[in-house]
Each structure stands twice: as structure tokens, then as C-alpha cells.
């Protein structure tokens, strides 16, 4: 078992993990057979903890998150190992049960919020949709809840923006809308896959601050995926360094920064301004 001591709170190490990944190996079908792009990955995330996966483009970060969400195309991909969320063994759930987990227990935000928002519907309706699928709310209750969520992600004049369309929001504001949608189901785990990569540096900082604040308020665990060591330093308690499908180093973020040993970790650190 790995040392899961977090710098946030030493006691989190003794709480049952929210997510536990054991020997995850994900492969894709190729002309010459199955090719693994994530190999033997094991880690867990405690309640309220943020674990970062850092690595260059193509190292297998997104495939890891898509494996946890079971969003890879069946037939073309193979996921081996164990993924546990709370009491559930995700790889043994039916598709129907897994849809329930995706709608309720895990939420995900991505790099480019525009691709996840439908351009022809007002954003208030889209957030309300995320709510009413899982709760039986009346229209006026849903509207009040959407406003509460928009306020929670610090969108100014939240109530008046319900009927606006995605293109009327800036990139940073759209990411806030996506975070509001992700919070709608009160997930146990938030997976953030490069959520700030497409944003200007000052906006990046605001979104990172927002995620940290919301994590404190909501108590969720966060899996934060990034290629940027500067972002890792900002957000994570523990960090996994991934290189071409393998975890090459794992530890508290403080350890990785001050005592990282693997040559690839050292190279990533040398690139931090
Ligand atoms: P990143 O760390 O940049 O998120 P990915 O997890 O997206 O990297 O990709 C890891 C590797 O898996 C890459 O070599 C990529 O080309 C490959 N890959 C990703 N998705 C697929 C797919 N659907 N089919 C085949 N190969 C894939
Ligand atoms: Mg990726």
C-alpha cells in the first residue's frame, strides 16, 4: 500500500478512499493486436483530497480519466484492473448503472467548455437539465437552484443570466458554467481534465482558486489532470507523474517538488519558470 499522507490533513490517509484504482491497464485495438497506453496504474483519492496526474501530451492522462468514467468505445478498447468508487466496483456495473454513476457520483470538466455546452439552448436550461434528471424539482425550484449554482461559481448577476446562450459567455465564464453543471449532482469525485489549459493566465488562476474554494465548501475529492507543474503546485495534495503510460513517480506534491528523483520528474520541474 502506498503512503497517502496529504499535506492538507494527515488524517485523510486513514479515511476510506473515495476512489481506488488498482492495476489499471487500458489498451486499444490496433492492426497488430492490443496496445496498452496506460499500464498497471494504482492510486487512490481520500475524501477532500486533490490528486494530480501530470505528464506531457500523449502520456495517458485522459485515457485514465475516460477509463474511470467508462467512456471509451467498447470493442476498440479494453480496461483491466479494479476501479472502486465508494462501495461500487465500476468495471462490473451494467451500462445503465454506470450512467447513474456518471450522472451522480462523478462529474467531469474538460479543457474546452464550448464542446460540452449545447450552443442552441440557454445555459440556465442546460444546468436545470442536469438537475432534473436526478431530482424531482418543479420548474421554479430548478430555476432557483440554477441561480444558486451560478452564484456558487461566482458568476456576476447570476439570476439575470439564466436565459443567455453559451456564446454570450467568455471562456472563463463558460468554464464556470461547466463547473456549476458538474456540481449540480453533488458528486463525490470531480475529474478535471486540463480545465484551465485553454484560458488566459489570469483567468486560469481564478478558476483554480474557484475549484479549491468549492472543494472546501462541498467536500468532494478531485482528480486534477494537467501537463503544467505550475498548476500542480497550486492545487494538489499528492501527485502522480506519468510518462508514456506508466506512473514513474508518486508522492506528496511537496515531495515531488523537493525530492522528485525520476529524470522525467526533474525535467518537468526544470521547465517550471
Ligand atoms: P494525454 O496524456 O495527452 O491526455 P491521452 O490519454 O489522450 O494522452 O493518450 C494516450 C495515448 O493513447 C496516446 O498515444 C493516444 O494517441 C492514444 N489514444 C488515446 N485515445 C485513443 C483511442 N481512442 N484509440 C487509440 N489510441 C488512443
Ligand atoms: Mg489529455
TrEMBL record:
Localization: Cell inner membrane
Domain ABC transporter: 19-269
Subunit structure, interactors included: The complex is composed of two ATP-binding proteins (GsiA), two transmembrane proteins (GsiC and GsiD) and a solute-binding protein (GsiB).
Role according to the record: Part of the ABC transporter complex GsiABCD involved in glutathione import. Responsible for energy coupling to the transport system.
Protein family per UniProt: Belongs to the ABC transporter superfamily. Glutathione importer (TC 3.A.1.5.11) family.
Name of this chain's protein: Glutathione import ATP-binding protein GsiA
Source species of the chain: Oryzicola mucosus
